[in-house]
Design brief:
168 residues, alpha+beta, DNA Binding (I), subunit A, four-stranded mixed β-sheet, 5 helices, 26% strand
């Protein structure tokens, strides 16, 4: 089983993602409470069936330092859904500076996008407007909550209200 559960702090703020097994143990040991079960799924023992946790909340507050999303190549790829922000392909991906670094462009969330090698070479030392290559989506710094959701690689609708996933 490779299902995941969202762990909320006592104040309902997202804390981490863990395995369903670990979440169940935390509930069973009365260290947390189940907030949302996983839509009809059950965990079975020899004699019992228990609802599978999807969202749990810890009974005690855990002090966690601010968690930001680190700017890495892999995290930019995740934010951009593993596709070129110019043509949409998922092959031969690399990073592109929207404002070229040779022209003062920073190495930041707002200036880096995923691009295929072909589009990156075609854009060259120009901005997307100068190269007539519009971006599919403006680059942004992702929230920690967004990355908590995306780390699972699947859609957990039960998590939406806790991760503040509002349509943009």
């Amino acid at each position: 089983m490779n299902s995941r559960a969202l762990v909320l702090n006592q104040d309902f703020s997202p804390l981490m993602v863990c395995s369903v097994e670990r979440a169940f143990i935390l509930v069973y040991l009365n260290k947390s409470e189940m907030i949302r079960p996983a839509n009809g799924h059950k965990l079975h023992t020899v004699t019992h069936a228990y609802p599978m946790p999807s969202v749990i909340r810890l009974h005690r507050y855990v002090h966690a330092p601010y968690k930001g999303v680190t700017l890495t190549r892999q995290n930019v790829f995740k934010r951009d859904n593993q596709e070129c922000q110019y043509c949409g392909t998922r092959r031969d991906l690399t990073l592109d500076h929207v404002m070229p670094s040779s022209r003062g462009g920073q190495h930041s969330w707002q200036n880096l996008v995923t691009a295929c090698k072909r589009c990156n070479a075609k854009k060259g030392d120009y901005t997307p407007e100068e190269a007539n290559m519009p971006l599919k989506r403006k680059p942004f710094k992702p929230s920690y909550a967004l990355f908590l959701r995306d780390v699972t690689g699947s859609n957990h609708n039960e998590w939406d209200e806790f991760l503040e996933m509002k349509s943009a």
